[in-house]
Amino acid sequence: MEKKATRFGYSDALMDMAKTDDRIVVLDADLSKSTTTVGFHKKYPKRSYNIGIAEQNMLGSAAGLSLTGKIPYVSTYGVFVSGRAYDQIRTTICYSNLNVKIGGAHGGISVGPDGATHQALEEIGLMRGLPNMTVIVPCDYHETYKATKASASIPGPVYIRFGREAIPIVTKPDTPFVLGKGQVYKDGRDVSIIACGSLVYEALVAAESLKTEGIHCKVINIHTIKPMDKELIIKSAQETGAIVTAEEHQIMTGFGSAISEVIVQNCPVPIEMVGINDTFGESGTPDELMEAYHLTSNDIIEKVKKVIKRKKS
Questions:
Q1: Architecture of domain 183-308
Q2: What does the domain layout of the chain look like in residue ranges?
Q3: Cys-Cys crosslink for 207: which of 26, 122, 217, 283, Cβ 3.0 to 4.6 Å?
Q4: pTM above 0.85, yes or no
Q5: How far apart are alpha carbons 51 and 73 in whole angstroms?
Q6: Annotated catalytic sites, by residue?
């Protein structure tokens, strides 16, 4: 299966958007090679700003640019932009509902050898808790490209999470993408596996394996964490009676928590969650870390069997 890092979907979209929309500007915090926006800086030097390792200043600058009619895309590691510049995002950008887009690179534990200080595991929770903020976690290169382009068409702040490592491409260039609308990638009657980001592929692998054991899983990609497709989630809960969530993020405050909020208020069913369990990461290869922190298809399979037992009891 073809693999490609989602960060290239982000920068490729920015390059294409800039051809026809001179409002697009890009800000970086001395990490344009890592975020892959270096090509944008070379081609559009007058629409590019390297603010340096000064994330708070970068978000403040983006806010000012938005007030002049520009559409600024702020690009740096997710752990830095959400942590170091949280006050500027909250009070300057979200409170005033400014049209600033934030590209959070190197999301998840699969950042690998850089270790805990660089692995963004909490930023979905931080960003989805902010009024006016849209939060998107695409599942592959093509979806990141589409999400980035779509973000320019909606007013207000947007957070797009993308990763460092190459991951399997599970969608196609012509796969429909609508902000706020989830997608059913595989139908099933026994359990709904609801995933985001890199765990969508793992969910599909788990579903294929479980099918050989007579367990039929519905697999859903929820790329927009906020606003969430509540209608699809409730419908799936009603149809299958059990849910497993999967994310490369802390379960607490993250994607699993967001799904649970919808379910407990509308259609309570048993839920199991695959994600980081209230711990920091460590250094290692991406594959080693995904396995060590129980973020693989095998871990999803284990949770599916557990939730089905709960469903029957």
A1: 3-Layer(aba) Sandwich (3.40)
A2: 3-168, 183-308
A3: 217
A4: yes
A5: 13
A6: 55
**Which CATH superfamily does the domain covering 3-168 fall into?**
Thiamin diphosphate (ThDP)-binding fold, Pyr/PP domains (3.40.50.970)
At 95 the three-state DSSP class reads coil
On whether the CB atoms of residues 200 and 185 are closer than 8 A, the answer is yes
pLDDT, tens digit (0-9, with 9 covering 90-100), for 53-72: 999 999 999 999 999 999 99
β-pair partners for 274: 246
Report which DSSP code applies to 88: I
CA–CA dist 131, 62 (Å, integer): 18
Q: Are 115 and 282 in contact (CB under 8 A)?
A: yes
Q: Do domains 3-168 and 183-308 have the same CATH topology?
A: yes
The two tokens of residue 218 are 């519905």
